[in-house]
């Protein structure tokens, strides 16, 4: 029986998610989320509720902007000790393959 490696640490999970984003693999990206889902995003609308709506944002907004040759990578991944669970305030590098006209961003 073949076994697959399951991410065991927060860092493994974040890096696996980032790899899925970079590969534009929507199924792998969405596997990291569950319903009910409430996401506060960096680009409008700032709040998205529900896995289906968040999936649509990836497919309709981020992936077209990113293109097949854009860059998406973990820039830094420090961990902060907390009383109940670690915090990982990761920073990302994301760039479209060419200059983006801000007036065309939804």
Explain what the structure shows.
With 106 residues, the protein is an alpha+beta fold. It contains three helices and four strands. The chain has helices spanning 10-22, 26-30, 51-66, and strands spanning 38-40, 47-49, 71-76, 91-95. A hairpin with a 6-residue loop joins strand 1 and strand 2. The protein is globular, with a radius of gyration of 15 Å.
Give a summary of the structure in a few sentences.
This protein has 106 residues and is of the alpha+beta class.
First and last CA, distance: 47 Å
Work out the helix count: 3
* Biggest sheet layout: 2 strands, antiparallel
Please, what is the average pLDDT?
Answer: 75
Cα-atom radius of gyration: 15 Å
The strand count comes to 4
Gross morphology is: globular
- Order of strands across the main sheet: 1-2
Strand composition percent: 15-25%
Helix-strand string: HHEEHEE
The assigned structural class equals alpha+beta
Q: Residue share in helices?
A: 25-40%
Low-confidence stretches: none
């Amino acid at each position: 029986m073949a076994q697959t490696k399951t991410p065991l640490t927060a860092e493994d999970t974040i890096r696996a998610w980032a790899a899925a984003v970079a590969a534009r693999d929507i199924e792998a990206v969405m596997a990291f989320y569950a319903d009910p889902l409430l996401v506060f995003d960096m680009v409008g609308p700032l709040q998205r509720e529900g896995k289906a709506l968040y999936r649509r944002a990836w497919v309709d907004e981020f992936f077209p902007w990113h293109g097949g040759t854009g860059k998406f990578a973990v820039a830094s991944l420090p961990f902060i000790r907390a009383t109940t669970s670690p915090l990982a305030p990761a920073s990302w590098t994301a760039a479209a393959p060419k200059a983006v006209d801000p007036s065309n961003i939804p």
